[in-house]
Amino acid sequence: MALQTRSLCFLLLVALVSLLLLGPGCAARYTADWTSLDSRPLPPWFDEAKVGIFVHWGVFSVPSIGKYSEWFWYWWKTKQSAEDVLFMTENYPPDFEYADFAPQFHAEFFDPESWAELFQASGARYVVFTCKHHEGFTNWPSVNSWNWNSMDVGPHQDLVGNLATAIRKRSLRLGLYHSLYEWFHPLYLSDKKSGFQTQEFVAHKTLPELLDLVMTYKPDLLWSDGDWEAPDTYWNSTQFLAWLYNDSPVKDEVVTNDRWGKDCACKHGGYYNCADRYTPDKPPKCKWEKCQSIDLLSWGYRRDMKLSELMDLPAIIEDLAYVVAMGGNYLLNIGPMSDGIIAPVFEERLRGLGTWLKINGEAIYASKPWRVITENSTVTIWYTTKGNAVYAIMIGWPSVPLLQLSKPSTTVDTKVVLMDSPDVLLKWTPLTALSGLEIVLPTMPVSPGNAWCLKLEGVF
């Protein structure tokens, strides 16, 4: 079916949904174009949250091997990676297909309540769960993915729904990662062959599943991916987002990222991801988020990962401080095992992060970038601000108990405390008549994250 016809079909579909939800006489606020959609204010909760947990889990968690293990099927069949071909040759019979991994995705130890407790303990305020990666397997009982979903095969349960219930009990926000495309879906391959002039896959798979996710689970965040091969007009992204923002049951609170079609990243959407592990050297003009995996080589779990390939706690906290000082959110990824167990090393990292945030979270949550982002004193300093306070996050502890900050300007009302002991005022002296101060530090408190935070009041 032609592109224009499919677009019309989708508009009729969302119009019908809108009428069912709202009744007659309700005018839409946003039109299906980027100028209008990009004008929508970002719901405040997202910027205030700052910290999220990303979870990559699917059939790829069964082989769980190699760099970017979540791409295993693609590396094995399309790229014919020597490493992956050898792995399959040595460990599986010749007629074994990727789909044969699905019955082994048992998730027998999956405990959504314990996952939710861990995510809350990490200090995260939202969770982004992979409901469908590029392999196409859905972690919910999608009627558009027969026998390739977590109810029909493998876990035989609604993984999305069970986790959503558990995290919402703990007042965490629910984000759903959803891949627009699927590597080997026949309808997608047919559309691709037409130069994306047909939209059979969009009409019969992508849009019905997006609507199902929104109507069934009412996510606070839609984290789109798998968009880069086709333009947003193929995906009908602007029509879908106009419905999402105007008429969906989550229209007032839902947040979206920028992966809605080829060339959309860093240009259009609710906030910007731009690229995996995006690391700008100056604050972007739009709200942004860095997604970063603890495993430096993969988003999905790898059975062959090494300790040297994982971020340690100091690296995670330093990255978090940089991101928040630059006005971003930090989305930290883990990949559970196929049986539902979160590896103890990942749990240790998340609980360590939460312990640090219990002491220093005031400098993170709902903070804003200060007029100065960073300075290199005897240690690296990242600045944030909230209300009348300025926070100086120290990466490392000075070798002598004196810290010079050259950027803040002091007043007669200036007060300085270390967040580990917020009731104890620290002594300080001005560096110059115009700006700066030298702070007398106390005995170094224990911090496995190798980072501490000073709160400065009465400075500008």
Question: Can you give a write-up of this model?
Answer:
The chain has helices at 3-22, 34-37, 44-49, 72-77, 82-91, 112-121, 159-169, 186-193, 200-217, 232-235, 237-246, 313-325, 344-360; strands at residues 51-55, 126-132, 173-179, 221-225, 255-256, 288-293, 328-334, 368-376, 380-386, 389-395, 402-405, 415-418, 428-430, 437-440, 451-457. It is of the alpha/beta class and 460 residues long. The strands form 3 sheets. A 7-stranded parallel β-sheet has the order 5-4-3-2-1-7-6. The protein has a 5-stranded antiparallel β-sheet with strand order 8-9-10-15-12, with helices on one face. A 3-stranded antiparallel β-sheet has the order 11-14-13, with no helix packed on it. Strand 8 and strand 9 form a beta hairpin. Helix 6 packs across helix 7 (159-169) and helix 6 (112-121) packs across helix 13. The longest helix is centred in the first third of the chain and has 20 residues, at 3-22. The chain is globular and about 75 Å long.
Condensed summary:
This protein is an alpha/beta fold.
* Strand count: 15
Give the termini distance in whole angstroms.
Answer: 61 Å
Order of helical and strand elements:
HHHEHHHEHEHHEHHEEHEHEEEEEEEE
Low-pLDDT regions: 1-8, 15-27
Largest sheet: 7 strands, parallel
Described by the principal axes of the CA atoms, the overall outline is globular
Count the DSSP helices.
13
- Rg is 24 Å
Share of β-strand residues = 15-25%
* Fraction of residues in H or I helices: 25-40%
Mean pLDDT comes to 94
Kindly report the spatial arrangement of strands forming the biggest sheet: 5-4-3-2-1-7-6
Class from secondary-structure proportions = alpha/beta
